[in-house]
Hints:
Glutaredoxin, 5-stranded antiparallel sheet, 6 helices, disordered N terminus
Amino acid sequence: MRILAVRAFLFACLCFLLCSCGKSDRHYDFKGRVVSKVSETHTLVVDHENIPGFMAAMTMPYPVAVNVDLSGVEAGDQITARVVLNKDGDYELTKVAVTDSSHRQKEVKETRQLFPGEEIPDVEMVNQDGQKIRLSDFRGKTVLLTFIYTRCPMPTFCPRLSSLFAAVEKELAKDSKEYSRTQLISVSIDPKFDTPSVLRKYGLAYLGEDEKKFEHWSFTVPTPENLKRLAEAFALIYEEEDNQIAHSMSTVLIGPDGKLIKEWNVSDWSAADAVTAMRQVENAKK
Length: 286
């Protein structure tokens, strides 16, 4: 895979684009190679060429428009596509076409995403205080969990997810009983860099520098093996390249019994959506 362009320049350009979209959608055509496909989330990770006016050559995940049929697209395929960027900064692929399938991977490992009602893998992780924890430690609570990494430069990815979680945290804190029955967990997909101290500093920025709130919102990092188990359970795509990680997004709601209740992909949810779903779980217990 090709090396990413200079990070600071890319980030500045992307921020400019996201802030200057105006009232109408923009679209950009590109060519690239499919690195992987997750049918459940209708997402492609593409190693694409430079997209003039939008993004430098890089590898990253792209949600695909719901009306696009991906049954004929596989990892290794060369494709052409169009990126549609809307006024909110969200983007998706349309007009996906395979131009060369001769390098298609002969053996594709199939992983099955968990369905609602199935139990979440009880993996061990380390939190921002260096303490080992497991998801089972939060049995009896309704848990909202997402995946981030602290160096993520994409404003519509990890920073957006963490901002949404901060809004959820603030809303739940209004009711002490509700607060005590719920838990937020951010899981890092960057075990090499995101040490407990790094996660602590990152978390405090979203918690208003109030370390007491770590009791309700944990920032954790699993081993690479345990991260893989979680990623497979939620069809999460992540791939490291030149000290950056291309990844999809997955936020899940886990019931007090440790079973999956609901999942949100990309950023198609609001803090109000999450809080409402968590309250519904709590009300069902009464």
